[in-house]
Amino acid sequence: MAMAGALAGCGSGSTEARDTGGTITAYIYGDDSVDVQRAAVASFNKTSSVKVKLVEIPGADYVDKLREAMNSTSAPDIFFNWGGGSIKPYVDKGQLVDFTDLIQDDPKLNSAFLPSVLKAGGLKDRIYGIPMRGMQPVILFYNKSVFAQNHLKPPKTWDELEQIMATLKGKGITPFALGGANTWPELMWLEYLVDRIGGAKVFAKIQDGDSSGWGDPAVLKAAETVKQLVDDGAFGSDFTRVSYTTGAAPTLFAKGKAAMHLMGSWEYSTQLGKYPEFAKNNMGWTAFPTVAGGARNAADVVGNPSNYWSINTHTKHKDAAIEFVKTMASEDYAMSLVKNGDIPTSSIAGLMLTSAPNPELASFQYVMVQTAPAFTLSWDQALPADRSTPMLEEVSKLFSGKTTPKEFVAAMKAVK
Questions:
Q1: What is the pLDDT of residue 296?
Q2: Phi, psi of 51, deg, nearest 5
Q3: Cβ 341 vs Cβ 353: under 8 Å
Q4: Which Pfam families does its entry note (predicted)?
């Protein structure tokens, strides 16, 4: 095949002869955005002798199921991931095809995606993932109806946010929906607070392997702010039993029982699938507010630059698997993401946003990411599992009141 020469040295083993038939298994995180990938698989299968079988795994089970599969004889040929630390165990074991040379030798593929996003799909300057979903910055969403009824405006500062919370609690409305049963939605609060208080450099030090970074004053201040939010009832009284992945937190937000929701940009696609009228008419959005005395990096962003397809080096159909993931670079695929409410990581995305379900939100996200001085990858994806797992455990303890802010800092400094 045309890319055979470029694949020499790409991953382990040599490129096999042209595929004449068979099946590729592709694991994907099952959520409301998967319709786009279903369509991509159906389109690919119309012309390929090797067919892709999409295996949708519920979000709450995805990481564990993937880990189990990759350690077995039934590992998927292709799988969805977040890049960074999420793929380190598989890279260390030589399980992932290295796309670096392929991308460099393919002008169309090389120019299809934003360089920073491609880089985030790998480790140590080697690329192991092809972007397959949109940019996913974490955004502060708000319910327009609830805000209008209570004469509120989106907050730009933490002081304004506290005033809004006081007004909402006085009316018996929970300020924020929070899927605390999953922990990772809680993590978003710490990610933004640490950034707004101390700047992106604080977590960058931690990500580079220096656990003393957890002792930065910004981490303690962020943890103390979280405790204050919990104590003040910002998330309601039973948020630790509310799940995001089952739709409970999005429902509270859509139904107006919670006025705001700090969540990744995929919240729009989630609401579009579950509560389309709310998504189209009553969802508002704004940047996370500044914190007085902090770094004032109001333009910094946290979240996921994208999600990625990676290929197992042991696949029997490497050529076909690569041909499939390369379809993610097509203009048609980028447009399908736009129509689903996502913002592609392609270099031409800005020209397509008028076709988005909500062009205004699409443009907000695009500008948000394009102008951000720093885009910090979600901590649980930026760190390898041996550090992210205990971190999530400590975050859960902090939000549930089982540990103090100082104890949280001490516990995280001890994670090596």
A1: 65
A2: -95, 145
A3: no
A4: SBP_bac_1
| Residue that is written with structure tokens 């004032």 in the block | 296
pTM of the model: 0.77
The yes-or-no verdict on residue 243 having pLDDT over 80 is yes
Closest CA to 383 of 354, 403, 412, 362: 412
Apex 400 CA angle, 399 and 406, nearest 5: 60
Confidence (pLDDT) at 105: 94
Q: Kindly calculate the radius of gyration of the chain based on its CA atoms and give it in whole angstroms.
A: 21
17 belongs to a structural domain: no
Report which secondary-structure segment, H or E, holds 55: strand 50-58
- Do residues 252 and 262 share a domain? yes
CB atoms within 10 A of CB 76: 22
Model pLDDT, residue 19: 53
Binning pLDDT at 50, 70 and 90, where does residue 10 land? very low
Using DSSP's 3-state secondary structure scheme, residue 137 falls into strand
The residue range of the domain holding 310 is 22-134+305-351
The answer to whether residue 14 sits within a structural domain is no
Element (H, E) at 297: none
pLDDT digits (tens, 9 = 90+) for 286-323: 999 999 888 767 789 999 889 999 999 999 999 999 99
State the Cα–Cα distance between residues 313 and 79, nearest whole angstrom: 12
CA distance 34 to 51: 18
List 346's β-bridge partners, or say none. 113
Flag whether 37 is in a domain. yes
pLDDT for the residue 260: 98
Give the long-range contacts of residues 363-369, CB within 8 A, separation 24 or more: 364/285, 365/135, 365/137, 365/139, 365/265, 366/135, 368/137, 368/139, 368/287, 368/299, 368/301, 369/135, 369/137, 369/301, 369/305, 369/343
pLDDT digits (tens, 9 = 90+) for 322-371: 999 999 999 999 999 988 878 888 877 878 888 888 899 988 988 888 78
Residue 260 and residue 388 in one domain: yes
CA 343 from chain centre, in angstroms, equals 13
58 and 197 in a single domain? The answer is no
